Amino acid sequence: METMNTAPKTWTRETGVTEKRDVWTAIKRGFRGRCPRCGNGKLFRAFLKVDNNCSVCGLDFTPHRADDLPAYLVIIIVGHIVVPTALFIETDYSPPVWLQLATYLPLTLVLSLALLQPVKGAVVGMQWALRMHGFDDNASGDIPPV
Prior knowledge:
The chain is mostly helical. The protein is about 50% helix and about 0% strand. The protein is built from four helices and no strands.
């Protein structure tokens, strides 16, 4: 069993001074596929592959851990768009099944692919702004890596 370090940490002005990070600005910049810190460098080097660092400010993107969250969020967003639309059209117009399948399946595919990269960028921006998963420059050395 591991023992916990119970030594109190003394707060000083120097330890409390950190870079101010606005969450909403970082999320918006990530959504646009830009660096969450400077807003100028590219966040992605391929469709869903996050670049290693920002080409403008040099921010290291390797600590990000978006994992499956962007896909879950895209499923929720697209579901909230497609399902009410399908229910509205079905109750008011009652089109044939082949027409519904020919409409809703491509719509779901296109919306999902269109939203996946922006949502992943927003998640990476949120992680940077909240200093999650290695984006904290002043992280304590006793925290084990994930």
